[in-house]
From TrEMBL:
Coiled coil: none annotated. The keyword Cell division does not apply. The keyword Transmembrane helix does not apply. Keywords: Lipid-binding. It comes from Thermus thermophilus (strain ATCC BAA-163 / DSM 7039 / HB27). PROSITE patterns: DEGV (PS51482). The gene is degV. This is DegV protein. Transmembrane segments: none annotated.
Length: 280
């Protein structure tokens, strides 16, 4: 059975990579200063941050429509027997619900997966699915592996400013003010598809130490680990953490470093950094 992979733009896979792999991507949308832009296609995080610094209102984001998905599924099924469609957590976006509605138009030919992840958490599952399909694995085997990754992976990230999280309703204004005043860096994770606090540290170095400590605990006893590093605005934001993870003595192989797309960056702000990992 020929299977084509579809994802959404919040998977944050670099455009050249997804092009080489033949992965189809349905973009989300960014609303900035009254204009609507397609994520990864028409606007960059740098442009968003610059406009906000110049006084523009904070951006908002929206999901693709079921019609957006149906169009991509229709095109994909002209070349394949089945579509495997992997998306951002349904607790963070309505994207997966739009995909499920569109899939009803193609009964038995589209499988939609809520990864319960975001950014490269989605991306790493897309890449793992592609790897298994190229090995000749069945759809059932691929879905079983994706369920394993969904249950068992590592993710931590931090942000340079609390303002974007506050505007998005993640934290209250008083907490944002206090965190900025005391140079507190939140350490965040995703649990069952929701963003949750995993700790906080005073300063950048302490935040990295906390992330690495949590990673060591998760990695104990694992023989082979793939790491996917993410950043927003400037790759230097993730450079120190990446270096420490790769030099940790743990069995880590770097799989990818990618900038956040405009949609995810709209909710996290500039200077965000972190990584996802899973074991083989």
């Amino acid at each position: 059975m020929r299977i084509t992979l579809v994802t959404d733009s919040t998977s944050d896979l670099p455009q050249d990579l997804r092009g080489r792999l033949g992965v189809r991507v349905v973009p989300l949308y960014v609303n900035l200063s009254g204009a609507i832009y397609r994520d990864w296609e028409e606007i960059t995080p740098t442009e968003i941050f610059q406009k906000v610094r110049e006084g523009a209102a904070f951006p908002t984001t929206s999901q693709p429509s079921p019609e957006d998905f149906a169009r991509v599924y229709r095109e994909a099924l002209e070349e394949a027997d089945h579509v495997l469609s992997l998306h951002i957590s349904g607790k963070l976006s309505g994207t997966v619900q739009s995909a499920e509605l569109a899939a009803q138009e193609f009964p038995g030919r589209v499988t939609v997966v809520d990864t319960q992840a975001a950014s490269l958490g989605v991306g790493m599952m897309v890449l793992r699915a592609k790897e298994l399909l190229e090995e000749g694995q069945s759809l059932e085997a691929v879905l079983a592996e994706l369920e394993r990754l969904r249950r068992d992976h590592f993710v931590r990230f931090s942000v340079a400013t609390l303002e974007f999280l506050k505007r998005g309703g993640r934290i209250g204004g008083a907490q944002a003010f206090l965190g900025t005043l005391l140079n507190l860096k939140p350490v965040l994770t995703l649990k069952e598809g929701r963003v949750e606090a995993a700790g906080r540290a005073r300063g950048e170095k302490k935040a990295r130490e906390e992330i690495l400590k949590a990673f060591r605990a998760w990695a104990e006893g694992r023989k082979r680990i793939r790491a996917y590093f993410l950043y927003s605005g400037d790759e230097d934001a993730v450079a120190a953490l990446r270096q420490e993870v790769l030099a940790s003595g743990l069995p880590v192989e770097e799989a990818l470093v990618s900038e956040l797309g405009a949609v995810i960056a709209s909710h996290t702000g500039p200077g965000t950094y972190g990584f996802y990992a899973y074991s083989l």
